[in-house]
Amino acid sequence: MINLKKHAQISLGYFLLAALLGVFLRFFFVTSIPANFRYVVHAHSHIALLGWVYLGLSTLIYKMYFQKAGTAKTYRRIFWFTQVTLLGMLFTFPFTGYAALSITFSTLFLFASYLFTWFVLKKVPEKYKRTASFRSIKGALWYLVFSSIGPWALGGIMATLGKTSIWYKMAIYFYLHFQYNGWFILALCGVLFYFLEKLGLAPRKKDFSRFFYLLNAGVILSFFLSVLWIEPHWIFYALGALGAILQLMAFFEFFGILRNKDLQFSPFVKSLLKIAALLLAVKIILQLFSAHPFFAELAFTYTDFVIGYLHWTFLGLVSITLFAFFEITGLLKVSKMVFWIYFVGFALTEALIFYKGTSIWLGWPFVENYFTILAIVSGLLPLSLAIMLTKNLLTKE
Q1: Any transmembrane segments, and where (predicted)?
Q2: Which of 25, 100, 102, 332 has a beta carbon 3.0–4.6 Å from 326's, enabling a disulfide?
Q3: CB of 61 within 8 A of CB of 187?
Q4: How many other C-beta atoms can be found within 10 angstroms of the C-beta atom of residue 368?
Q5: Separation in Å, CA 284 to CA 136, 234, 289
Q6: For residue 397, what pLDDT is reported?
């Protein structure tokens, strides 16, 4: 029997490490630090996306479909192989950046994710295959695999065209887009549909199909929003805008499915999901704005807006939804006090990041000691995660 609580705690531990690296990065702008900023950024982003979110989602997927399926041995091997790749990245990226060892471990992680995708698609019990939840999870896993085209392309681009090539950024944006908008979002929707199915509130096939096809079309077309910084032909603006509109329509369908459903969750979990829904709505609106040439140019010129958007989605929408799902499944206990420390840290850092971008754009006076304030406020995030992890480690089975 696999102790999935331990797996959830490990994923939370990676989140704590990523948050600590994030605070460390903030202090680069406060004082002289004898380390390579870019190398630490690589470690921070890889551990955040692959340690916390990937591991968190894969743990939830296993709990949903496989806990009683007699597949523990295969899953355990994939899990520990994944840990080797994550720890390898954690201990190489901060010191070498993209070099032989770090590239080896990140490449091995891609193979681990392919193995996990194979495991889920091949071993899932027959009774789940036609459910809305599994169709969503299946789509999410294909986006996970599809997004890996970006990392595979990076090696060839760096060897032939170099890091200054537009294709280098394109490969990174390709990866991030299909991770954030495909794998993350569709997997989270799948987990929520699973809970609805367990409560006897499964969406009607017609309603789910509308949502599913609109969202997939929107995810694919909205990738073109990631290429607008090179000021391409107007057709790319039109395709990106259509993708954003289709995602907006998809989530109208999604919230229609949830409307009037008696979700038998605790009041705290309902609050977490309402916050996540609000963050999702803002995310979709920001995507829609970014289809306009003015806002596309603004985002490219002032990178704080892009950083703010990525953190809005990762720290806000995705992580808060994961907190809610871990609380529902009992894999992690998330106390109200600790969550609100986390949320205050998230809200203040987002406000400061967007303030910086706006100040530079509009020529507003800059707050004195801005970077010190940002670094200190950012400390609320690892503080909350450390308390959360400690409480869960000390809680008896």
Answers
A1: 12-35, 47-66, 78-95, 101-121, 141-161, 173-196, 208-230, 236-259, 271-289, 309-332, 339-364, 370-389
A2: 332
A3: yes
A4: 7
A5: 19, 21, 9
A6: 59
Token pair, residue 106, equals 């990140």
d(CA 85, CA 42): 14
**CA angle (42, 227, 235) in 5-degree steps:** 165
| 329 touches 269 (CB < 8 A) | no
Alpha-carbon gap, residue 363 to 340, rounded angstroms:
33
Q: What type of residue is 344?
A: V
What 8-state DSSP symbol labels residue 292? S
Q: Sketch the domain layout of the chain as residue ranges.
A: 1-129
d(CA 300, CA 295): 9
Query: How many CA within 13 A on the CB side of residue 350?
Result: 16
Q: Give the DSSP H or E segment for 42.
A: helix 37-46
Measured between alpha carbons, how far is 111 from 47 in angstroms, rounded to an integer? Answer: 16
Give the CA angle between residues 352, 379, 40 to the nearest 5°. 90
User: What distance lies between CA 345 and its chain's CA centroid?
Assistant: 18
pTM above 0.90, yes or no: yes
- Quote the tokens at residue 110: 């891609």
State residue 200 phi and psi, 5-degree precision.
Answer: 75, 25
Calculate helix-pair angle for 100-123, 72-96, nearest 10 degrees.
160
Predicted confidence (pLDDT) per residue in 283-318, tens digit:
999 999 999 999 988 988 999 999 999 999 999 999
H/E element, 244: helix 234-258
pLDDT of 159 above 80: no
> Would you state the structure tokens that stand for residue 261, as one six-digit string?
């459903």
- Two tokens, residue 392: 């869960």
CA distances from 249 to 222, 235, 288 (A): 13, 21, 12
What percentage of the chain carries pLDDT values higher than 90?
86
C-alpha–C-alpha distance, residues 243 and 94, integer Å: 36
Enumerate residues 6+ apart whose C-beta is below 8 A from 50: 14, 86, 89, 109
Instruction: With CA atoms as reference, report the closest residue to 223 among 283, 287, 309.
Output: 287
Residues 372 and 212: their CA atoms lie apart, in Å, by 44
Q: What is the pLDDT of residues 48-85, one digit of tens each?
A: 999 999 999 999 999 999 987 778 899 999 999 999 99
